[in-house]
HTH-type transcriptional regulator LysM (Saccharolobus solfataricus), 142 residues
Amino acid sequence: MGNANIDESDLKILEILKKNARTPYTLIAKELKVSEAAIRKRIEKLIRQGIIKRFTIEYELENEIRAIVMVQSTPQIPTPEISKKIAKIPGVEVVYETTGDYDILVIVRGTNITSINRTIDEIRSIQGVVGTNSTIILRTWF
């Protein structure tokens, strides 16, 4: 990833898109005091460099439960291998490889505690997972 070519304008564009990926290029251009074409070129460059990986949404449904699952793995199986398997499990929203007591942090989503438990059980069944610690998300702030 070529982060060396990132300047303050690129960082500002990323910050705007992070808050709302649907922000029109014209509004970004107005805020940065440049042309819409300049914004379009910068965003295309950020995509090409792999800095912008995807445009997505954050959502929260009523009566939906989200949890953070911290996963300990065994050193005998590479963490990326375990992470890729976890990412394929239904109900898994995102997987992070981390440092500290836990090697992997997983955000899971479900319609009830039973579905959350099912997802956690599936994570625990993956070869190389030696332990988990879970916590329910009460609120999300953006």
About this structure: The helical segments are 8-19, 25-32, 36-48, 79-87, 113-124. The chain has a mean pLDDT of 92. Residues 3-48 form a domain with the Arc Repressor Mutant, subunit A fold (CATH 1.10.10.10).
